[in-house]
Write a structure and sequence with these properties.
The protein has 176 residues and is an alpha+beta fold. It contains 4 helices and 5 strands, in the order H-H-H-H-E-E-E-E-E. A 3-stranded mixed sheet has the order 3-4-5. A hairpin with a 5-residue loop joins strand 4 and strand 5.
């Protein structure tokens, strides 16, 4: 019965009935557009996503050099901890403005030598130490202790030889 009624609406030119969207029964009319509830659900979903992403974007440093600084500090700190694990808690020592025990093979006492059975540990970096991107240097300057309070003119990295803490030797970034 419904099908016949629908077909009668589709017949054009027979009798007085002509095809028109407005004279179709409501159960046969397809809905076009969105309801207010659907639009509100989408708006709430977009607001939740924005609220989740916005704090992460605003917390990121604007300066890419600061991002590289944080990455390099994380790498240095991780490799110093790795060295400490493999050497019974001993920390690498500053020699000639660098941490050569991190860039060369060592034995369990920290002596540097050629990689092999006598010097099986390390190197912890496959090249030189990472550079401080804010001053372009990778020298290591021994500091009196952590937290660091004063940057030195040498630049590069500040290093606490008592606990192995490393930081940027750059004013404004001593606590990074």
């Amino acid at each position: 019965m419904v099908e016949l009624e629908f077909l009668n609406h589709l017949r054009v030119g027979i009798g007085r009935r002509r095809f028109s969207f407005w004279n179709l029964p409501m159960r046969l009319v397809r809905r076009f557009g969105f309801t207010l509830v659907e639009l509100l659900i989408v708006a709430v979903f977009v607001a939740v996503l924005t609220a989740a992403v916005l704090p992460q974007m605003s917390a990121a440093p604007d300066n890419p050099q600061v991002q590289v600084l944080h990455y390099n500090l994380t790498a240095l700190r991780a490799q110093i901890e790795h060295y400490k694990l493999e050497h019974g808690g001993a920390i690498p020592q500053v020699v000639d403005g660098g941490l050569s025990q991190l860039t060369a093979a060592t034995d369990s006492t920290g002596r540097i030598g050629s990689a092999g059975p006598l010097f099986p540990l390390g190197p912890y970096f496959s090249g030189p130490l990472p550079f401080n991107p804010l001053d372009g240097r990778n020298c290591v300057v021994p500091a009196g202790g952590y937290p660091f309070v004063l940057a030195t003119p040498e630049g590069g990295w500040l290093y606490d030889a008592l606990d192995g803490h490393v930081g940027a030797n750059t004013p404004g970034h001593l606590a990074d």
